[in-house]
Amino acid sequence: MKVSSKGEYALRALLALGKNQGKVMTIQEISEKTLVTNSYLEQLLLQLKKFDYVQSKRGAKGGYLLHKDTNEINIGEVIRNLEGPLSPMGCASITKYEPCPLEAGCQLKPLWSLVRDTIAAVLERTTLEDLLLNRINLLEGEKLDVFKA
Question: Cys-Cys link to 93, which of 25, 63, 85, 86 (CB 3.0-4.6 A)?
Fold first, then answer.
């Protein structure tokens, strides 16, 4: 899994909106906070609106604001919606499985599956609120449940 600029910038926009929750922000204001160009930001905000993370307000005092509470915005879901599967390889993907001619007896598939499960475990348990409150550091040193004996 590789998070592209699309996913990174979308998360930056959500963080900017989350820091100003309840306040309508213009694209220019969001751009200044995220260092993302207005034109690219417009495209991203339309996608975030499509997935119901943000809403837009028209008019002279228009702009964007979060449509959900920060504790309801799951980072794993955002990344999947914008970037696609979390798996590093198609053969290990749960949502977009792609068969491989070498899959039978493949010794790499368990590794790719573990990578997928580990990434998913971290992203799925992280909300926008966790990022805003810097609670991501609680994961350091924790044993993840995805490791199977």
Answer: 85
